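In the design runs reported in the main text, the only information available to the sequence generator was the tokenized backbone. The following block is the verbatim input for one such run; it is reproduced so that readers can re-run the procedure and compare outputs position by position.
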């Protein structure tokens, strides 16, 4: 992919090809005033802008390309719980803080379900997500997770699948165990992001596309500056995740981009759908370097994974992902591949989302490590709470210690890639 902030239209994904509406918000020209300016119109930015607008703030939302252009419009579409790094939090901060974060894990799911209903967003939202085990140690991991669900009295339906149930429900011999959650699920992420932007605009949010931000002018009333305009605001929220390069003095080497890639098949015959995914659930294995997949609304297999931490894109996405899919589902060998695409997700070394503020009135939130559909919406609510003066959850994240890898971002990516080699080898054992 091209460098960040080079104006671009959507990548050739299945989502871009099936979007409900094309956005065409104006470029930022001249000076605009708002209570809050949000930079980046992916999930973090649209969720934050919509939350703030619902609370009565005037908001400007500035995007370098199109709404949902980055990871928010390209991801696997899996709506799964998750603030990563809970075990690390528990060891360092104790059970009380870990329990607070546990209670937040599904909050993003709740927000999305509420907004889909409230604003009539058509994004193919469906319940059902399965984590699957390939090896015996994965079974232990899932059983421990089930114990956590029991301990926390998880209110939503879930169940464990043995080998036979897993084979029956997923039509493959690749897995030996599974845990299915019926509060988690899957959706069309680009349609969700665009739908939330439309809802925000309906509440008065000024949205600007094709307006790369060139800098932030700090002060009591900071300004977001673009090539042809500026937004003067009381507060700024940076929501660019893996794609932004703003404020390097404060944010460099905090979040690293990692490539994730997906292929999409032609629509599958009904009998094939009934064989491989009759419950229409999203699936993800519990390897360190995961594969994930689901069916689209028109019954295509969308299969992705094999996250690339080096910064180098594969020569062919199809050739990289297709063997993985056929290993799981050899019965799809005669199925045509219609789409292949990729994008960058934001990785934080400790897997805990990075949130904080700069000089008091510039907030940032980023680094969701593959759980962004849910967590972005949580972060949007947390940062909106903080702007309104309720700091408890914001301070919890802001006080988390993050390891910064020294040197250039390229060097940081190579160090992370070297570290992930250990996990790739672990997956083979």
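Verbatim output:
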């Amino acid at each position: 992919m091209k460098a960040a902030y080079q104006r671009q239209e959507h990548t050739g994904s299945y989502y871009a090809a099936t979007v409900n509406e094309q956005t065409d918000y104006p470029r930022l020209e001249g000076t605009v005033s708002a209570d809050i300016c949000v930079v980046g119109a992916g999930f973090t930015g649209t969720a934050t802008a919509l939350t703030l607008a619902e609370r009565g703030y005037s908001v400007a939302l500035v995007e370098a390309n199109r709404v949902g252009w980055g990871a928010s419009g390209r991801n696997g579409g899996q709506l799964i719980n998750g603030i990563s790094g809970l075990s690390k939090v528990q060891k360092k901060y104790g059970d009380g803080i870990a329990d607070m974060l546990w209670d937040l894990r599904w909050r993003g799911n709740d927000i999305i379900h509420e907004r889909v209903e409230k604003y009539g967003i058509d994004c193919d939202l469906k319940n059902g997500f399965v984590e699957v085990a390939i090896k015996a140690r994965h079974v232990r991991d899932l059983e421990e997770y089930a114990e956590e669900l029991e301990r926390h009295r998880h209110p939503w339906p879930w169940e464990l699948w043995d080998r036979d149930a897993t084979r029956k429900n997923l039509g493959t011999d690749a897995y030996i165990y599974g845990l299915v959650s019926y509060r988690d699920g899957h959706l069309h992420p680009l349609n969700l992001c665009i739908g939330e932007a439309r809802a925000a605009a309906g509440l008065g949010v000024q949205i600007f596309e094709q307006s790369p931000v060139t800098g932030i002018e700090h002060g009591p009333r900071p300004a977001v500056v673009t090539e042809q305009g500026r937004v003067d605001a009381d507060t700024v929220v940076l929501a660019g995740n893996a794609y932004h390069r703003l404020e390097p003095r404060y944010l460099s080497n905090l979040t690293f981009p990692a490539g994730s890639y997906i292929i999409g098949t032609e629509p599958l015959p009904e009998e094939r759908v009934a064989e491989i995914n009759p419950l229409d659930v999203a699936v993800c294995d519990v390897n360190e370097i995961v594969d994930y997949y689901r069916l689209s609304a028109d019954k295509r297999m969308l299969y992705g994974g094999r996250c690339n931490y080096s910064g180098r894109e594969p020569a062919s996405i199809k050739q990289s992902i297709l063997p993985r899919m056929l290993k799981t589902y050899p019965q799809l060998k005669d199925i045509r591949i219609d789409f292949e695409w990729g994008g960058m997700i934001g990785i934080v070394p400790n897997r805990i989302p990075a949130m904080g503020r700069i000089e008091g009135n510039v907030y940032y939130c980023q680094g969701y490590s593959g759980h962004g559909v849910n967590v972005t919406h949580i972060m949007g609510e947390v940062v909106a709470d903080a702007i309104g003066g309720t700091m408890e959850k914001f301070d919890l994240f802001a006080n988390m210690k993050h390891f910064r890898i020294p040197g250039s971002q390229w060097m940081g990516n190579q160090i992370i890639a070297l570290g992930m080699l250990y996990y790739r080898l672990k997956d083979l054992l």
